[in-house]
What we know:
The protein has 226 residues and is mainly alpha-helical. The protein has 2 domains: 2-56, Arc Repressor Mutant, subunit A (Orthogonal Bundle), CATH 1.10.10; 75-161 and 196-224, Tetracycline Repressor, domain 2. It is 69% helix and 0% strand. The chain is built from 11 helices and no strands. It is flat, with a radius of gyration of 23 Å.
Amino acid sequence: MAKRTATKTRGRRPLTRERVLQKALELADRGGAEGLSMRKLAQELGVEAMSLYNHVENKDDILEGIVDLVAGEVELPADDEDWKAALRRTATSAHDAFGRHPWAAALWLTPGKPSGPRLRYADSILRTLRRGRFSAPLTYHGYHSVIIHVLGYTLQEQNLRLRGDELEQMAAKFLREFQADDYPDLAEHIKQHMAPGEEHQGAFAFGLELILDGLERLRDAEGATT
């Protein structure tokens, strides 16, 4: 019996913080961050729950750690690239990362310890705006506009991501109760909203371009008056 136990112990991969967080990321992707628990994580790793505390402080520490893993997947803007192309690439990369990990957007701005990956992401956007010759006020507003578009659009997209039959049922119920004759344009918009088609393709990129083009116009107008 002792020999079999020793063999099993030697064959088990050593537990590390990286391994704990990677498994936690997989669990969150499968069942959402709210379903993640120390007990479930320990079971997946084949260890006792108490052994996790040698590598992570608590569940909050795990959540912060896996959000950092998602942040590490975001492509940061290159310093030798045009500012607009660089921000477009980074914002799109962040949106894609949130698509792969649907729970992460809601946790991105939760209070916690400052983290390297998220700090680098924020700093790179600010640096790119400064490199694009934006004033301090425009850099401030431009940064928040890009961040809010990525997070806000992603959260709305995830909240509306229902099966086709659910969308049809929701649209039918809403339009039955909605006074379409009094608000015909809004009724038409609701029909478009509930039945995604070509107009929904590229909606994230459409909004992002409005922000980037608007920032560019404001910068140029500001420069013309100085």
